[in-house]
Structure formats: structure tokens, C-alpha cells
Amino acid sequence: MPGGRYGRRGALHNWVEVRLGTNSALKRARSPIGFVVLTLVALQTLATSLVAQSEPLVSHAVSIPRVDAQVEIDGLLDEPVWQSAAVLRGFTQYLPVDGRPAHDSTEVLAWYAPTALHFGVRCYDSNASVRATLAERDKIEGDDYVQILLDTFNDRRQAFVIGVNPLGVQSDGILRDADRRAGSGFSAGGSGAYTIDLSPDFVYQSKGRLTGSGYEIEIRIPFKSLPYQADPEQDWGLNVIRKVQHSGFEDTWSPVLQANASFLSQSGALTGLAELRRGLVLDLNPETTARVTGEEATSGWAYSGPDPELGGNLRWGVTNNLTLSGTMNPDFSQIEADVARVQFDPRSAVFFPEKRPFFLEGIEHFELPERLIYTRRIAAPIAAVKLTGKVSGTNVALLSGVDDQTSSATGSDNPVHNWLRVRRDLGGQSHLGIAYTDKVDGADYNRVPSVDGRWVFGGLYSVTFQGATSFTRSGGTVTNAPLWNLAFSRSGRTFGFTSSFRGVHPEFSAQGGFINRSDVVNASFVPRVTLFGRAGALLESWTGSVSMSGAWDYDRFMAGNIPDDPKLHLNGAFGLRGGWQVGTTLVIESFKYPPQLYSDYVIERTTSAGVDTIPYTGTDRLYNLDFLGSLTTPRFQNLSGNFRVIYGRDENFYEWAPANVFFLTVDINWRPTEQLRVNALYNHQQYIRPSDWSTVGMRRIPRLKLEYQLSRSIFVRFVGQYDAEVQDSLRDDSRTNDPILIYDSETDTYARAGREVRNDLRVDWLFSYRPTPGTVFFLGYGSSLEEPAAFRFRRIGRVNDGFFLKLSYLFRV
User: Fold this and answer.
1) Residue 45 DSSP class
2) CA 599 from chain center: how many Å?
3) 437 near 513, Cβ under 8 Å?
């Protein structure tokens, strides 16, 4: 290897020995603040000492003309300026089979004015079967669409996604590299080497129209809507994705190979952008919300509600690459009930995404391998301020917020959250980062410093790591505990694998984040093989993978025991011509008895001496054998569907006993007209005792969503969801067959776990007007109901209901 690299390594070694080898430095590093300071210095040293300034290999580069002109965004590319635009052609297929010429041709015209980028897209479809609906924003995944990917910092770390369907409906977000995921019975389709977060919204203009040979789209992207470099002349990363629904093909302008560990490193480039005028970026977004809730009172049904609440957001572009935002009393923006989540393991918490606009803007800067920053932890903020951006190859994000007293453990203090995230680019695709979260609630606190990084090498391989320690004071006692995560992946076209090793100490606490389960160590290794069919064959691709994993209680892992829950999954995923996807999985598992989950259980025993109780110990280990199958249809002209079934022997967490399980998910999308969308979703979860074929637990959740789009900015929505759950009287089914008693803390007694029935119905109506992100008018009604017998629709009674109104307006200075 070149001697210069060894020279840099020696310099770093000497720096560490001199700077960090002193006792005083080490003492400072023991505190969270000292840790952050020393790590920031270390990151800067690594960036300048270890990394050669390598430039990404760009296969496609285009210099587009700068024209001081304005055009009407009407979907007609007929103005004279389009004749001088640069033309992007030569698309190639990425999914399901990379490297082949695109089946349907695409042309992208591009030029820029002093204040905005302009794109015109002509998509030709040889089958004249374009899928297009007048959809809600960010809901075009079932349509044909085009996505413009703009890497405005030209660092190949992330790209802004500007998506448009054939009717001009918008879908935008952030694209980042991710490990390729092989399909299985859990999810029939595999994935590309990227993920897209559709949460952020950007202001841009778009129009589209159907033509006799396909469709055309016109897009204008103001420079003030996106952050970018401060240089007077700059290059941006660029790629264009086209999704063709009738074939299931995904094409890209710059050729992208599945064998590469990075999707973004294979982007093309916009070169020579100069004299960009962003102007003053100052967005003021005042809002008002009002809610009226109803419930049964002594005098009948009564409504009550607080006075209208005022709030708002402020966004200031300090520079081209730094944004300062603030909020006062932000609205949660929950405009319909969340889809009910079916929980398979009660030891794992359920995650719900963020919905508030202030916290969504720039949320990508706070990402970590482990979710140590979870903005919904600031549950009812009084005020918050945020600084995000990128300076000289370093992403910086800082958020501080004051929560309402209702979020305090004491009920009388205002919790204060402070979150810092810094990430430094290294080389082509690698990075190092730190995070620090601090929550202060009265005399108590929770502080979590973290170090993480990703190293991409050899074009195929990536290593991701993270280490964190929590420092928590509660009731005068201070505890600290670690979390760690290590992953190694190979992204080869034919052969690849993913492996991971993760541990969360039982006392680790991230009160500003989301950790779905603590007191656990997980290890997994998933090799995969992918074979591709010839062009035009029925079988386009097949991926076989073997998922080998194990889970331990933390202390059992440290003691060198075998896994508590070893798992072996044999997966197959078939991609068929026309966009059909089939997935299969054979599940072989065993689960060790988790005593902490049943600490409140005892068994009622009847003997000749009378009735007494004995501790509940459960069966030491349960063995599972299941089959999973899934089917995803292509997007037909008006219909598409996704089906998944699980059947076999699995664990029954109700009684910690074996059960025959039957899980079914049916998801149907029907679009009878361009404006009407119907989604029918059904989840079925059932556990049957093998001893007598009785049902110990069953949950059925049908959900219907109807949306009528009056225009691109106006729609009316109805959502109805029924959640019927029944639990049989519990017994020690795997051993004594005696009744189970569960401790009731309110009465300080043990009570029989008798039969429980719940039949809940929720309906939501919404009128929505949203011409642009930030400007909205919502008027809605929601009602929660219940009935004694499932799906009889008799004697239905209201539990509560309510009306709500939200009005906000985006002022752009």
C-alpha cells in the first residue's frame, strides 16, 4: 500500500497518544459533555488525517443551459426555451434486472433560470397503458411516476426526491443508501439499495398530462426550496427514476448496478451551475386548531372543548446550507386514526411515525443506526428551535424543545430536551458521526452520548457500527448502561449477505429515542443468491436466502449461554413477468420461557386440602414450525393487491404454550375512476390450542378507506376501521391445565384471567384543502363506537366523538 497512507496513520496514532493519552483528557471523557467535545475533535482529525479526497466516478454528466426566462407550468413543453434545453436519454433498467436497456423510452429536458431548475419529461409507453390517478400528495406509489433525484451537495450521501405522476400529482422526500433486502414470505418483493422517506415536503410546481404515446410532465423547482452549496459555481448529483407499473420495471438515467453497495454513488451529475439566486428564505407558517369532543354525561351526550389554539412555525435560511427553524405550540396533525398494528411479540414496543411538519423538516439530519432521537418524545411542546445544515462536509443538527407539564413524570415540571447530531463525510461513501441527547425533568435527567459510522469499501461491502451509553438519574440514583450495534454487508448482484450484532443493556434508557426492546442481544447472518431469467422469460428473477438469527437476554449472553430464541428462515422470492411477486418462507424456531413477561402470573390449584396458588413457571422452551406465503400483484388498470398468510405451529404468548396459528393480511386497492380510490385492508390473527382446538385468542381488523379527489388540492376521505378481539379464559395449557390468575395492582389481589371481548369501531371523515405544503384547511369528524357482539352492527354505542378544524397558511417572503 502507498507509504503516504501509513504516514497519515502514524500521525493519527501520535495525535491520539499525545492528546487522549493524558489522564486529564481521559477524565474529561468520562462525562457526557467531555465525550462530545473529545469526539468532535477526533472526528475532525480523522477526516483530515485518514481520508484521501477521492472523487466519485461519474458515468453520466450533463451541463444544462442557463436561460433568464419564465414559462407557464402547464404540462405543455411548447415554449421556445425547451428547444435549447439539454436532453437526457438512454435510460437502463435497474429493477428487477439491472443493466438492460429500458423497455420504454424516456426523455428528460433540463435547463435553469436564475431562480429555479426546470425539467420537462416525456415518457413513452409502447403499451399505451399508463396508470394515473388524481391522488393525494405522496400517494402515487400505485401510479406510473418519475422521480428527479437532486444531490445538491454532490456528496453521494442523500438526495432530494422530486416525484410526479402523469397528472402532475407530487410526491417528495429524501433518498438515502440502504442495504438491499431480499424478498421472503414476509414481503414478496426485494428492494433496491436505497430507501425514501416521504415525510418532508418541498414547495415546487408541476403539471402533467396524458398523450397518445404516453405522458408528459413539467416541473419547476425554486432554488429557495432546497439547501445547497455556497460555492459560486457548483456541480450537483443527478439521477432520474421512472417506474412503469404495467411491467413492474424501474429504470434510471444514470446506469445503476445492483452489485454496488451504494445507489447514490452511481448517480450522474449536473455540472457548471452558476449564479444561482436563492434570495431571502423566510417562511412564516401561522396555524390555528380547534377541537370539540363529545362524551356521555348525566344530561345526555355533551360536547366540550378548549378555545382555539394558536401556534406556528418559522423557517429562516441563514445561508444556502444552514436553516434555522422555530415553533410555538405545533399541531400534531393527526387527521385520521392510525392503522391498528398487529403485535407478534409483546416484548417489542410498536413504533408510530412523526407527523408534525416542524419536526419533519430536516428530520433526515437526526438519523442514526439505532433510533436514539425520536421526535415524538417531545409529546406536547410549548416551544422548540432547530438548526440543521451541512458545512464543509459535516452535517450538523441541533434541536432544543420545552415540553408541557403533562409530559413530566412529576406533573409539575417542564421537561427540556436537547439533541445534537454531527456527521462527518469520509472519502467516497463513508462517514463518522456522534449524537448526544439530554432530557432534564425536574431533578432527574437522561443523557446519551453515541458514536456511529459507516465504512463502504471495495464497491460491494459496507460496515456500520454504533456505540452508546446512557447516564440516567432517577430518584437520586445514577445508572449508566451501554448499547452497541455492528453490521456487515455484501451487495453482490448474484451473491450477497447481511450480518448484524446488536446488544441493549437492561438498564439502558433513551428517553429521547425509541428502542423497541431492551435487555436483549441479537445476532443474525443472512446469505442470499439471486438468479436472473433471460429477457422476456416468465421468471425474471429468483432470490433464495437463509436467515439465521438468535436472541438472548443480555445477562444470558454475557454468561455464554446458547440463544434464548434461535431462528432459521428459509426464504424464496420470485419475480415474474408483468410485475407479479411471490414470496415463501419456512420458519423453524424455538423460544425460551421469558419469566419477566409472566411475573404477575400464578396458577390456581385445587387439591384435597383446598384451593391455593403456585408460581407460574411455564414450559422451558417452545418449538415453532410455520409456513409463510405472500403474493403481490402488478398494478392493473384499476386494481392491485397484496396478500400474506402464515400458518403452522407457533408460540402462544397468552398462556406460554404451543398454538396452531393462522395469520392473514389482505390489502386491495381499487381505483374505479381517476378521482376515486378505495383501499380495503383486512388483518386476521388467531391462536388455536392443539390440545382441544379451542381458540385462545383472535383479532380481526377490517379497514376501509374511501377517497374522492375533487382536484389536486381538494379531497374528501372516509375511513372506517373495526377492531374485534377476543381472549379465552386462560389456563396453564402446556402443563397442568389449571386456571391462570393475574395480579391486579389496583385491588392488590390475584384475579382469574377470564374471557375478554372487545369490539371497537372507529369512523373518520375529513375534508382537506392543501394547495401547497404549509397551506392547509382541514375539517373533520371522528367517532369511536363499540358493540357487544362482533360484526353484528346492532346495539352500537358511541364511546366518544369529536370535531376538529385546522387552518394554516404559508407566507414565503
Assistant:
1) H
2) 34
3) yes
Q: Which residues pair with 785 in a beta bridge?
A: 761, 798
Distance CA 779, CA 711 (A): 17
User: Cα(770)–Cα(806) distance, rounded to whole angstroms?
Assistant: 11
Answer yes or no: are the C-beta atoms of 358 and 265 closer than 8 Å.
Answer: no
576-590 exposure pattern, b = at least 16 Cβ within 10 A, e = fewer: bbebbbbbbbebebb
b/e for 80-100, b at 16 or more Cβ within 10 A?
A: ebbeebeebeebbbbbbbbee
Quickly tell me which residue has 406465503 as its cell: 629
Run of H or E including 528: strand 520-532
Report the candidate in 364, 291, 283 with the shortest Cα–Cα distance to residue 327. 283
Q: How far is CA 739 from CA 346, 585, 696, in A?
A: 21, 36, 13
Nearest of 8, 56, 302, 248 to residue 159 by alpha carbon: 56
The pLDDT value given to residue 798: 94
CA distance 136 to 107: 26
The 10 Å CB-count burial string (b at 16+, else e) for 626-646 is: bebbbebbbbbeeebbbebbb
Q: Which cell goes with 786?
A: 363499540
Cβ–Cβ under 8 Å, residues 264 and 270: no
125-182 pLDDT per residue, tens = 876 789 999 988 999 999 999 999 999 999 999 999 999 999 999 999 999 988 776 6
In this prediction, residues 285-311 reach a mean pLDDT of 88
Position of cell 477526516?
47
pTM for the predicted model, two decimal places: 0.86
**Rounded CA separation 299/305 (Å):** 17
Gap between the Cα atoms of 90 and 110, Å rounded: 15
Cell of 492: 453482490
**pLDDT value for 333:** 54
**Phi-psi map region of 230: left, alpha, beta (phi>0 left; psi -120 to 50 alpha):** alpha
pLDDT reading at 512 higher than 90: yes
Inter-residue contact 163 to 141 (CB < 8 Å) = no
Task: Give residue-wise pLDDT tens across range 576-608.
Answer: 999 999 999 999 999 999 999 999 999 999 888
Q: What is the mean pLDDT of residues 762-790?
A: 94
Query: What is the DSSP-derived secondary structure letter of residue 19?
Result: H
**Are 89 and 107 spatial neighbours (Cβ–Cβ below 8 Å)?**
yes
Which residue is listed with cell 402488478? 634
Hunting for cell 452489485 — which residue is that? Answer: 259
Q: Give pLDDT tens digits for 600-623.
A: 999 999 888 888 899 998 889 999
Helix, strand, coil % over all residues of the chain, rounded to 5: 10, 55, 40
pLDDT in tens, 383-412: 999 999 999 899 999 999 999 998 898 889
Residue 565 pLDDT: 97
CB neighbours (10 Å) of residue 205? 17
Amino acid identity of 56? P
Omega of the bond leading into 306 within 30 degrees of 0 (cis):
no
Q: Look up residue 44 and give its DSSP letter.
A: H
How is 429-495 classified by DSSP, letter by letter?
A: TEEEEEEEEEEEETTEEEEEEEEEEEEEETTTEEEEEEEEEEEEEETTEEEEEEEEEEEEEE--SSE
- Nearest CA to 219 among 278, 280, 131, 160? 160
Element (H, E) at 18: helix 3-19
Residues 6 or more apart in contact with residue 667 via CB below 8 angstroms: 641, 642, 643, 679, 680, 681, 682
Distance from C-alpha of 742 to C-alpha of 50, rounded to nearest angstrom? 59
Please give the pLDDT value at position 185: 67
What contacts 45, CB < 8 A, 6 or more positions away? 12, 15
Q: Is 171 exposed, middle or buried (0-12, 13-18, 19+ CB in 10 A)?
A: buried
Other C-beta atoms within 10 Å of 550: how many?
A: 17
Question: What integer is the mean pLDDT of 701-730?
Answer: 96
The torsion angles phi and psi of 171, rounded to 5 degrees, stand at -150, 120
